[in-house]
Amino acid sequence: MDAARIASLLLLLGVVWSRAQPGAEAAGTTVFTLRNNCTFTIWPATLSGNSAAAVGGGGFELAPGANVSFPGPTGWSGRLWARTGCVAAASGASLACATGDCGGAVSCALGGAPPVTLAEFTLGGADGKDFYDVSLVDGYNVGIGVAATGARVNSSTCGYAGCVGDVNALCPAELQVAGKEGEQEGRTVACRSACEAFGTAEYCCTGAHGGPDSCGPTKYSRLFKAACPAAYSYAYDDPTSTFTCGAGAQYLITFCPAQQ
């Protein structure tokens, strides 16, 4: 086993492969299960938005068809995403990714570089509920689906959040990011947001367009929304994109759900 592989495995301390820790769900602990349904290896990453420790070690390698589960503490708020086209240094100390890179680190302490699809969570928020969404506000690299599971899930309130459509296949030329190496060379590997591409207040919901009454959907966000109706397409796309679930739910996060 090479040094890079050993290093990635060491980062999985506290992470349980294939299933959650015994008794975690019964004890009311939230468990995230990540499934790679893509045809290629990804490197999932996590980042805490509050003072809580990084869940899942901050990042790890996940082969096609593989699952990994790890607990999320009550009160945790943060995001998860997939890094693609990654090449690990021989020492295993750094990781360069075509999309979603977090400063070259294996275990992320920074957010993923856009364009990147995000799954966002707040566990045990207002009224003790979980809040979650899938966001294309920072662009798109791979599809993500979030499904609440477990005995405590109410199907009428715990909706499916996600982006099943292949936005890369629909991405306008002015937003496309092309791969530069190997099998990805010349292929569209990600789709930028209009904010990242053009930087104007209209697309970034800043300045004179800095509120929900002055920043509405654009032709680009409408394209994202048509492909992924259950995902955030721009900053104020709340009514159809934020989901809530009661405490104690478990979450299945599937990368490339369209390939199921």
Automatic annotation (TrEMBL):
Pfam families: Thaumatin
Gene3D superfamilies for the chain: Thaumatin
Coiled-coil region list: none
SMART domains, alphabetized: THN
Cystine pairs: C38-C256, C86-C97, C102-C108, C158-C245, C163-C228, C171-C191, C195-C204, C205-C215
Alphabetical GO biological process terms: defense response
PROSITE patterns attached to this UniProt entry: THAUMATIN_2
Keywords on record: Disulfide bond, Plant defense, Signal
Segment forming the signal sequence: 1-20
The organism's place on the tree of life at top rank: Eukaryota
Name of the protein: Thaumatin-like protein 1
UniProt source species: Triticum urartu (Red wild einkorn)
